[in-house]
Automatic annotation (TrEMBL):
Name of one Pfam family that matches: DUF5996
Protein name, per record: DUF5996 family protein
Organism from which the protein derives: Methanolobus sediminis
């Protein structure tokens, strides 16, 4: 890959330059994600709540509602939110310059005009930077079009790579999906066996970790991790997991434990082949977890 193409596909994403925008969009996406949570039929492991990378941004995908379906999409090329229904109705909300409260009110007004009624718990979920209810949050209003488009273009590349790796596994696995509560793009493989839950697990974790899994993901960083990173985790953590080698060389097992491996995005984008570096990382964690966790790899992997 040429340096120009590599920079286009895996551009820099310095958190210091777009953190206010990142946090505002995180809250925007929680509002839309909670609408999907409120209306989409339940699926295992909370797969019914997630969003997806699309050809223009991030979308709910089709949501069933009474005698129609509708879809909500963040168009991160034209920087608008689009609500479409199967009854040929549409509402468009510009994203630039809106506070969280303005966005919340505009979205629910548009849904009402389209004949869609939904109730959500209108407060942020697990966001240390904000506990303000959506309806009264006038503080978060940053929207940098350049960085939102950059973020989406990175997600496009990573989503495609995750889809490629998903094709190596024929066991139970999740879609490639965007979890709005922690703003991470995720793919999860399952061994097919149930898993013990840690003491004190809440309702969310009881469902998410009900079965043995190896999860892969990408997130843009936060108040603690000050740069984007890839992660992979094995649950439950089998004995000897962190003795297994990781690839590429820059990957490492988290010193905080929990069966978590990390590969920083900036190390990937500086590598000679970012796509291969991501695939190698995912496969090295899978091989480590499957080996130490005694997964039945003969029945779970495609053999060519």
């Amino acid at each position: 890959m040429s340096n120009a193409n590599q920079e286009e596909q895996f551009p820099a994403l310095p958190i210091e330059e777009w953190e206010d925008t990142m946090n505002t969009f995180h809250l925007f996406s929680q509002i839309i994600g909670k609408i999907r949570l409120g209306l989409y039929p339940k699926r295992n492991h909370w797969w019914h709540i997630t969003l997806y990378v699309s050809t223009r941004g991030i979308t709910t995908g089709p949501i069933p509602y009474e005698d129609m379906i509708f879809e909500i999409e963040f168009d991160l090329i034209d920087h608008v939110l689009i609500i479409n229904t199967s009854k040929d109705s549409e509402r468009i909300i510009p994203l630039m310059g809106l506070s969280v409260s303005q966005f919340y009110n505009k979205v629910f007004s548009a849904l009402s005009e389209l004949g869609i009624t939904v109730k959500i718990r209108a407060v942020p979920y697990d966001t240390p930077f904000s506990t303000e209810p959506f309806e009264t949050d006038d503080q978060h209003s940053s929207y940098d079009e350049k960085y939102m488009n950059t973020y989406w273009r990175i997600l496009v590349q990573i989503s495609s790579i995750f889809q490629t790796y998903r094709g190596t596994f024929r066991g139970k696995c999740s879609p490639v999906q965007y979890f709005w509560h922690h703003k991470d793009l995720s793919l999860i493989f399952y061994s097919g066996r149930t898993a013990p839950l840690w003491e004190g697990a809440n309702m969310v974790n009881r469902e998410a970790y009900s079965h043995e899994l190896i999860a892969f993901g990408f997130w843009a960083g936060d108040e603690n991790v000050r740069e984007p990173a890839f992660y992979a985790s094995v649950y439950p953590e089998p004995e000897g997991l962190t003795d297994e080698p990781l690839s590429p060389e820059k990957a490492f097992w988290s010193p905080e434990g929990g069966g978590m491996a990390l590969l920083m995005y900036n190390d990937v984008r500086r590598s000679s082949d970012p796509k291969q570096a991501i695939l190698d990382f995912m496969d090295s964690v899978y091989q480590a977890g499957a080996k130490r966790g005694n997964w039945d790899v003969n029945s779970l992997e495609f053999k060519i």
